Amino acid sequence: MTDSPALAAAPSVAVIVVAAGSGSRLGHVEPKAFVLLQMRPLLDRALDSIFAMREAVQVIVVAPIDRLMDARRIAASVSARHEAPDTTTPPPLSPAATSTSIAAPPSRTVTIIEGGRTRQDSVDRGMSALMPSIDIVLVHDAARALTPAVLCDEVVAAVRSTGHGIIPGLPLVDTIKRIAHSGAILGTVDRSELSAVQTPQGFPRSMLADAHARAAQNGRFEAHTDDAALVADAGLPVSVIAGHPLAFKITTPEDLERAEAILHAATASPTPAWHLPRIGTGLDVHSFATDATTELWLAGLYWPGERGLSGHSDGDVVAHAICDAILGAAGLGDIGSVFGTADPRFTDAHGEIFLTETVRLVAAAGYLIGNVSVQIIGNRPRFSPRRGEAETLLARILLAPVNIAATTTDALGFTGRGEGVAATATALLYLAPCAGRSVGQPAAPAPLPEPGQTPDLNWEA
């Protein structure tokens, strides 16, 4: 995955993923696309489907300005799961497609950009990031997180065959009534003429660009709730194809519960041993530095006025213990063997650097982080006032829930004497879904650094 358009074969299809909406109706403070669904953000699951499309695509994620780094981490994690060539038998794309040849996944280029004030503003910004080779544009809501890749492929195929706009939709099954403000029934609507439309909505690039330009010129840019309405308002043709029940939009707490139930049912069958969750533990200890000017960094936070911990890096025992727990659960060694203490690049490095690279390594090995629990042992600093801040920061880096507790040893031992701080961590990992993997077969892990080699420090999506 790269932000550069230099691909072996430039894609002709782009998918603009709108992930800038709020989560207010969902009952969450964070934007909807970053709400967790079975320990994975909705954006992660939405990108999983797009990365599973049959052909090369440009993926443009439009996210809130304060979540651009989170979007990059999520995109990098999804990319790592899909980069390795698939060595398993892929499911047939049609009854006639039964090939079992091994093939590398299609190329992807991912661009993360800042969203606009409205949905149409965000789509417009996504349009401005399109590569010159793009001739078909799909607009997709990150909140439709369970949308199957096959639906995306079918929208692309329909746009190519018709040359105009295509939207997926489902027939309505309930009787629809027109009602007055008082609640009185005014009549019954013929539901055979209605469809509940979904995303992704696909269009020839020139058609969508023309519709956006006309709407902006006529002052109707924000009058439409989806791109199909905007295109139709410009007098351009749009057709409906069969949608998919899983492409529903997660908007309310009930929608989230429905998605949870669907995923739970999908994984309720007997689980092979390799698919069971993996647990790792970590322990790190650092003494307080003799130099009173050394800064204290703990749980990814800077603690003004507190004496720092000694170490080759910043001595953040929480970050280091988490790294050991995660690496251990994935069977990737420990922080010492992966990063080393002699590497000058890590002199005074903050814990976020180690955590970010650890997340990338476990994603490349085919795992996702379920949750992390940490216990801090020491007399100082007083941790409870900043517990929530630390948990939020670490959860955003790890893309997983983090719980931190702190305790003392009642004046016993080196922590009780105020000589240093210790931290223990426990991490739960589980196998990441991967496009084309057959049920009952694990992912092929990515190659790991050989002894003495340094890890890849290019973490940007």
Characteristic key phrases:
single chain, 461 residues, alpha/beta, five-stranded mixed β-sheet, four-stranded mixed β-sheet, 18 strands, 29% helix, elongated, disordered N terminus, disordered C terminus
Task: Explain the overall architecture.
- The protein is of the alpha/beta class and 461 residues long.
- The protein is 29% helix and 23% strand.
- It is built from twelve helices and 18 strands.
- The protein has helices at residues 42-51, 68-83, 119-128, 149-162, 205-218, 227-233, 253-266, 317-330, 335-339, 351-364, 387-398, 413-416, and strands at 13-18, 36-37, 40-41, 57-63, 108-114, 136-141, 165-171, 176-179, 185-189, 195-197, 201-204, 238-242, 278-287, 295-298, 301-307, 367-377, 402-407, 420-431.
- Strands 5-4-1-6-11 form a five-stranded mixed beta sheet, with helices on both faces. A four-stranded mixed beta sheet has the order 13-18-16-17. The chain has a three-stranded mixed beta sheet with strand order 10-7-12.
